[in-house]
Amino acid sequence: MAASQASSDPSVMAGEELRRQPRKPPIKYLVPLIYAPVLPLIKITLKRQPVLRDRLFFIVLGGAFLHGSYLVSDLYNVESK
């Protein structure tokens, strides 16, 4: 009788149904590791083309700020719910 009660217990069944999914790296938090080294490389490699260098630098920098604001707004939305 105790076995039938344990099997009908919803907390035990929920534990059995939930399986551990493999953890994936949070890509949205790892993106700065990609574009952070790109900024100095833009300045170094395009030294002889200042117009292109500045435009590309500010486009990448703007993308970094947009990505950061997206992450902050996403965290803010989670906290407000």
Short overview:
This protein has 81 residues and is mainly alpha-helical.
What would you say this structure looks like, in words?
The protein is mostly helical and 81 residues long. 79% of the residues lie in helices and 0% in strands. The chain is built from five helices and no strands. Helix 4 runs antiparallel to helix 5. The chain starts with a helix and ends with a helix. The model has no long low-confidence stretch (mean pLDDT 80).
Features:
81 residues; mainly alpha; 79% helix; 0% strand
Structural class: mainly alpha
Q: Which sheet architecture does the biggest sheet show?
A: none
> Globular, elongated, flat, extended or rod-shaped: what is the shape?
elongated
Order of helices and strands: HHHHH
- What is the tally of helical segments? 5
Number of strands: 0
Topology overview:
Layout: H1 2-8, H2 10-17, H3 27-30, H4 32-45, H5 50-80
Helix pairs in contact: 4-5
